[in-house]
Amino acid sequence: MNNTMLKQLTVENFASFAERIVFTTQTNPGKKEYLENTFTLNDRAYNKVSILYGANGSGKTFFCKIIREIQRLLDWSPLMTMDNTQFLSLPHFKGIDAPIKTFAFDTDYQKKPTTFEIDIIIDATLYHYAFSVHERKIVYEVLTKKTYRTEKLLERLSSSYKSIVLRSELRDFDGTKQVVKEESLCLPIAALLNNALASKIVKAIKDIQVVNMAATKLTPTNSQESFSDERVSKYVNILKKADPTIRKMSLSYKEEEVGRQKIELDDFENREIIAMQTTVGVETNHAVYEDGRETCSTPITFFAEESMGTVKLFTALPYLYDVLENGGVLVIDEIENGLHLSLAKEIINLFNNEGSNPHHAQLICTSHQPLLVSKDFRRDQVWITTKDNYGKSTLHRMSDLKTSRAKINLATKILEGAFGCNPELFFNDNI
After folding, report:
1. For 195, which DSSP code?
2. Among 272, 301, 363, 390, which residue carries the largest CB count within 10 Å?
3. Can you list the pairs that 83-87 forms with residues at least 24 positions away whose Cβ atoms lie under 8 Å?
4. How distant is the alpha carbon of residue 418 from its chain centre?
């Protein structure tokens, strides 16, 4: 079971987020509404579902990319320890060495570092991991751990490995820290060398799934469990509601090695980095009728001939089942894209419901559809992204905005533009 949850995410000088923004799943302690949408850990309450609204171009997709950017830098850092030419030529490593997108519409921000902070809870222990990057170099990195008190495990105050201070569970990496380059993070290098705590934290962050429903095809999950016979049977039963002619689904799951590179440093004891690629093939058989009677079945090319909505639903199902059955965090950009409103609401309800979400998995999603929160939603579950005339995006929690103390219809308020998340009229002066 994945005993990881996301408490907080912070970024500064990344993409359209010029100034520091803070997102949290911790509930507002003064709000007692819809407690069934929350769960309690270490005497603190957290939301199971959080939804971000905003106009087109307001920063919703960039918010989802914060997690992906952190994951990219965790993946990139170990490659800095070797000749990475082989890996950079692989299609699924495309862009892994790209510079960070700082705020582009003010030259002052090009002189400032980009800072990422993530607070995750693993097995009831809170870890705060933060780092700053400027001109590709890591200029700051810190890791703290909090059970009863806060303990600093890693501190780095410059690009040089000489400034790295390691304590407690990370102390055994101290004798090898000289392999950490100016452009690489210390924590994933310690994980590469099998430091148990570093490995646990890096894995927890990289296990956060980020899905963009606007994509024509989603990248398959890397768990063979996602495509077991039991799971496929569940997928077919769900897809039959979208396409009642489906009778059988056959999946081919292939995981193959596409690259291998030895790390040419004595300290690494002949360790290797191995790149794997997962491919999933799908074939479906559909009922054929004659005079209203089912006579046989015929195969179709699923991804080419099935409706786009059904394809998107299928490709999202492994992510949903993985996190609901095992726990963890799932981020979905444009959750309603290609899906009927009632289906998107049903997915959200799966997370809010204790029976279908026994491990308190968390869903964080963006949307243009206010009716997703038409009822039974807490105001601290809803976030608003806006962009000013200078291109800067901001993020605000609806519970922090001034509204009546009485229960309000969140969907109506969003549609009315009460919280500034609706676009201005695009065609008003052009008709």
Report:
1. -
2. 363
3. 83/261, 83/264, 84/261, 86/259, 86/261, 87/259, 87/261, 87/273, 87/275
4. 28
Q: Which of 115, 118, 117 is nearest to 138 (CA)?
A: 115
The CA–CA distances, whole Å, from 318 to 16, 209, 231, 234, 359 equal: 31, 11, 8, 10, 17
Write down the pLDDT at residue 83: 59
Task: Give the Cα-Cα-Cα angle 307, 310, 313 (nearest 5 degrees).
Answer: 150
Is residue 334 exposed (0-12), middle (13-18) or buried (19+ Cβ within 10 Å)? buried
CA 322, CA 98: separation in Å to the nearest integer? 30
For residue 86, give the 3-state DSSP assignment: helix
The residues with which 137 forms a beta bridge, in sequence order, are 134
DSSP code for 335: T
Alpha carbons 26 and 51: distance in angstroms, whole number = 14
Q: What is the pTM of this model?
A: 0.88
d(CA 53, CA 58): 9
Structure-token pair, residue 237: 């039963």
CA distance 329 to 52: 16
Q: Which amino acid is at 108?
A: D
E strands along 148-304, which residues? 150-156, 165-166, 209-212, 246-262, 272-290, 293-301
Residue with tokens 């199971």, as numbered in its chain: 48
User: Rounded to whole angstroms, what are the CA distances from 265 to 80, 81, 86, 88, 274?
Assistant: 12, 8, 18, 20, 16
pLDDT at residue 267, as a whole number = 47
Give pLDDT tens digits for 278-316: 677 788 889 999 888 999 989 888 877 888 888 888 888
Q: What is the DSSP string of 341-410?
A: HHHHHHHHHHHH-TTT-TT--EEEEEES-GGGGSSS--GGGEEEEEE-TTS-EEEEEGGGS---SS---H
Helix (H, G, I), strand (E, B) or coil at 244: coil
Contacts of 107 (CB under 8 A, 6+ apart): none
Contact criterion met (CB below 8 Å) for 64 and 175? no
State how far Cα 179 lies from the chain centre.
29
Q: Mind listing the pLDDT tens digit for each residue in 143-158?
A: 999 988 999 999 999 9
What pLDDT score does 221 carry? Answer: 63
* Average pLDDT along the chain: 85
Side-chain-facing half-sphere of 216: CA atoms under 13 Å: 3
Determine contact, residues 199/191, Cβ cutoff 8 Å.
Answer: yes
Strands 362-367 and 329-333: parallel
